[in-house]
């Protein structure tokens, strides 16, 4: 190394002791007071100014400033209040901006505890900033307070930094004891040194060193500051109410977040004991995330009902929470923070996501976290569990993120080692899903891409029981306190609705293939939706999602396979024998076949308290939230028809306001319109102008092979981008957003996210049918994005549909997307001057002309 790469500390004797500083050095001082840190900073800064160095002071602490304002020192205030990610990213950018060979002074890192309450995160910050400073040949001074941080935080800092120095003040004398000095050595370097003026006198005599060290208090093993705060909070349980309240608010800000509607509700409903109970089941530190908060809050609201209606029916839960700080620690300790910082920029947002996703699937967890994972698995034994995303932005007012992140079932069979590996991989899978294209696009479209999206995780016991070699609950589903999908005037919107399935709820939240959840209007649970009697079987559930204990995986079985099982309750509660099919089979001579069933839940809805209880539950939650809500639940029954409901999730339901009632224009001739229908629309009262209609031809679409059908879906995505900002109505046969091209066009939600209206029409000759799957994730997305939805059942009474109104107009596809002209036979884009769509929710009328 050249002599000129050596840099003075401003103290000649000390320079001699440690053979000066080198470019790239991070220098960490362990101190007892800010005053003594300042004593070391002053000569270093004076020397740097003498040498005409570029000096930067990074200011974030609550302590007195280390340096006076001075024109040749740049001061950067950075706000730690915004959380670890924002802080680390801001510091990263300022280091990048200031460039090579800059000299830095940082405030005392211990002050960050006041904002983050987590030792772990201070260590993480140091680990991501220090190597970057080293790369740029800078020199940076840091300080930490002695006997405050855990040994593992200090070990992490020691491992990352180039110099770690203990600074002691004993009887007005200053001693520096180098603990680590990288890439230099002298026989006396690691002795304590007495600093006197410009001198540093090495204390080599054992008697003197022993005297010095015996007068210094060495701390015993220390807890993370997070645990210290929560341990102290337990003592507050015995204090006066106002002191308990102050402590509770602090803990809520650490576990749940700051100022939001959800936090207000938590402060109202949770006691200090409740919060301590949640904290006792958290692994790591940080927030527990939106999904966990929603579930806990909803349960608390129901438990506090004055009439105590709900408690006897609620299945208790014993969930665990993986704190959001673990997500960051996982990224930092595997060395991917730099990649994450690149991915968080506008340019790198989509381009770096696949690489980061791949890495997230293969990282290592810190040992202390692994130990806690083992405890969780020992606790659950061989009960199936589900690992669910619970991000900070999830399930909040305004952002549902419905289905954007993964949830992974761990069937939890096999040896402890196999079960552990599957559990760890489930967590990695949820972490990696933050980089899913749909989730990224969702965040981008809502202007959230720069917001911290820390991923916490909710670990829940799966509700249900063993039936032969499978595990499932009797019932599962989604409930909405407002029924936005009203199909005739008698439906009371405010009574709410359920989307009900037999078995696991996965079939209720996704638009499943060839299968239909049961839609229950809670004002009249036995009311049938719009369909002919003979269609009841067709539009019901034919498959049941279960966990296979034998194959250790989530699987679907035909209803006929499951019905013969002893499910510990009368099957006819959920299903009835399909006598029509029995008669038909008998006529055809098939007499030995198992009895066919239809899942229609008649007995459940007619003879049990279940629908009434669900209606009351949704009404109470909605009243407290002062907003419509959306829940996920399961229910299990006993022989005597008693049942327990497990409330898995609750969030504000994203709704389009119903708006003012709309005057529907009178037509001289009913036929003189593009289409009109009674019911089968969703999105409230609207009057919307339409600039373009994008129409997919049934016949040409179905003639394409599977690959060709996917190609049509991708074209819709291109049109969605090209016509962004215009009012566009998208029309096609069957279901938009299905995963099965034979049932409709398999677009991703992001490929139709800019549309104003989405229309699904029935094609009787081909059997392509819309699905009124309100409650599924696809519909959540529609509602949340404010996209109006309509289904046209051509041929039913009170339905008028004249596709020619559009098809006679010029097809603009080739002029809008010249490279797509080969799709002109299947996609028709018409410019529709002056077309409008009108809907009125009370009369259930809809008209487009």
Automatic annotation (TrEMBL):
Q: Indicate the segments forming the Pyruvate phosphate dikinase AMP/ATP-binding domain, all copies.
A: 288-664
Q: Taxonomically, which superkingdom?
A: Bacteria
**Protein name, please?**
PEP/pyruvate-binding domain-containing protein
Source organism per entry reads: Metabacillus rhizolycopersici
């Amino acid at each position: 190394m050249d002599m000129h790469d050596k840099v003075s500390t401003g103290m000649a004797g000390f320079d001699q002791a440690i053979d000066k500083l080198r470019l790239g050095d991070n220098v960490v001082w362990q101190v007892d007071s800010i005053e003594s840190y300042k004593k070391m900073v002053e000569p270093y800064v004076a020397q740097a100014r003498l040498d005409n160095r570029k000096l930067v002071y990074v200011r974030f602490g609550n302590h007195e400033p280390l340096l006076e304002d001075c024109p040749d020192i740049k001061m950067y205030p950075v706000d730690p209040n915004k959380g670890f990610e924002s802080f680390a990213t801001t510091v990263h950018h300022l280091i990048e901006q200031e460039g090579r060979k800059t000299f830095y002074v940082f405030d005392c890192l211990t002050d960050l505890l006041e904002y983050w309450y987590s030792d772990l995160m201070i260590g993480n910050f140091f680990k991501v900033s220090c190597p970057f400073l080293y790369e740029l040949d800078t020199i940076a001074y840091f300080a930490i307070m002695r006997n405050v941080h855990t040994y593992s935080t200090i070990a992490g800092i020691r491992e990352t930094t180039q110099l770690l120095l203990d600074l002691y003040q004993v009887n007005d004398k200053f001693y520096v004891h180098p603990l680590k000095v990288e890439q230099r050595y002298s026989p006396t370097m690691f002795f304590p040194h007495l600093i006197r003026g410009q001198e540093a006198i090495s204390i080599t005599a054992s008697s003197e060193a022993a005297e010095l060290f015996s007068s210094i208090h060495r701390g015993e093993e220390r807890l993370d500051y997070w645990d210290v705060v929560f341990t102290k909070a337990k003592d507050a349980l015995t204090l006066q109410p106002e002191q308990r309240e102050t402590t509770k608010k602090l803990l809520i800000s650490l576990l749940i977040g700051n100022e939001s509607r959800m936090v207000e509700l938590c402060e109202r409903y949770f006691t200090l004991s409740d919060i301590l109970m949640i904290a006792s089941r958290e692994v790591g530190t940080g927030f527990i995330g939106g999904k966990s908060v929603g579930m806990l809050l909803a349960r608390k609201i129901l438990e506090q009902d004055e009439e105590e209606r709900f408690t006897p029916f609620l299945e208790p839960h014993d969930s665990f929470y993986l704190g959001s700080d673990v997500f960051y620690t996982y990224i930092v300790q595997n060395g991917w923070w730099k990649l994450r910082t690149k991915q968080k920029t506008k340019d790198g947002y989509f381009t770096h996501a696949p690489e980061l996703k791949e890495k997230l699937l293969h990282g290592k967890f810190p040992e202390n976290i692994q130990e806690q994972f083992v405890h969780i698995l020992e606790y659950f034994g061989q009960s199936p569990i589900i690992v669910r995303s619970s991000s900070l932005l999830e399930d909040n007012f305004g952002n549902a993120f419905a289905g954007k992140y993964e949830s992974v079932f761990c069937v939890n069979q096999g040896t402890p080692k196999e079960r552990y590996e599957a559990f760890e991989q489930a967590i990695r899978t949820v972490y990696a899903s933050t980089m899913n294209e749909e989730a990224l696009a969702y965040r981008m479209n809502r202007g959230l891409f720069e917001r911290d999206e820390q991923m916490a995780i909710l670990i829940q016991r799966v509700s249900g029981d063993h039936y032969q070699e499978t595990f499932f609950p009797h019932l599962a589903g989604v409930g909405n306190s407002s029924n936005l999908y009203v199909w005739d005037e008698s439906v009371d919107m405010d009574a709410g609705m359920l989307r009900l399935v037999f078995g696991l709820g996965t079939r209720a939240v996704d638009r499943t293939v060839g299968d239909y959840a049961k839609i229950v209007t809670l004002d009249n649970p036995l009311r049938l939706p719009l369909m002919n009697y003979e269609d009841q079987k067709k539009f019901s559930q034919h498959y049941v999602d279960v966990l296979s204990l034998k194959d250790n995986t989530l699987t679907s079985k035909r209803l006929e396979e499951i019905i013969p099982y002893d499910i510990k309750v009368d099957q006819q509660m959920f299903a009835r024998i399909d006598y029509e099919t029995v008669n038909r089979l008998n006529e055809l001579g098939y007499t030995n076949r198992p009895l066919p069933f239809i899942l229609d839940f008649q007995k459940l809805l007619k003879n049990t308290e279940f629908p009434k209880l669900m209606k009351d539950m949704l009404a109470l939650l909605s009243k407290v939230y002062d907003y419509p809500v959306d829940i996920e639940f399961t229910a299990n029954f006993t022989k005597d028809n008693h049942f327990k409901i497990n409330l898995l999730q609750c969030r504000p339901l994203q709704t389009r306001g119903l708006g003012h009632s709309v005057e529907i224009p009178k037509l001289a001739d009913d036929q003189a319109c593009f289409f009109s229908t009674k019911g089968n629309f969703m999105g409230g009262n609207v009057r919307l102008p339409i600039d373009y209609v994008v129409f997919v031809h049934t016949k040409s679409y179905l003639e394409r092979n599977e690959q060709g059908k996917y190609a049509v879906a991708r074209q819709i995505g291109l049109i969605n981008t090209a016509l962004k900002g215009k009012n566009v109505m998208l029309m096609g046969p069957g279901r938009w957003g299905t995963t099965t091209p034979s049932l409709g066009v398999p677009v991703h939600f992001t490929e139709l996210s800019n549309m104003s209206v989405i229309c699904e029409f029935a094609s009787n000759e081909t059997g392509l049918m819309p699905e009124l799957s309100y409650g599924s994730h696809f519909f959540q997305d529609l509602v949340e994005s404010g996209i109006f939805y309509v289904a046209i059942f051509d041929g039913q009474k009170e339905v008028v549909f004249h596709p020619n109104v559009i098809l006679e107009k010029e097809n603009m596809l080739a002029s809008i997307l010249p490279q797509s002209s080969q799709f002109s036979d299947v996609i028709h884009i018409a410019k529709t001057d002056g077309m409008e769509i009108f809907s009125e929710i009370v009369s259930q009328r809809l008209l487009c002309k």
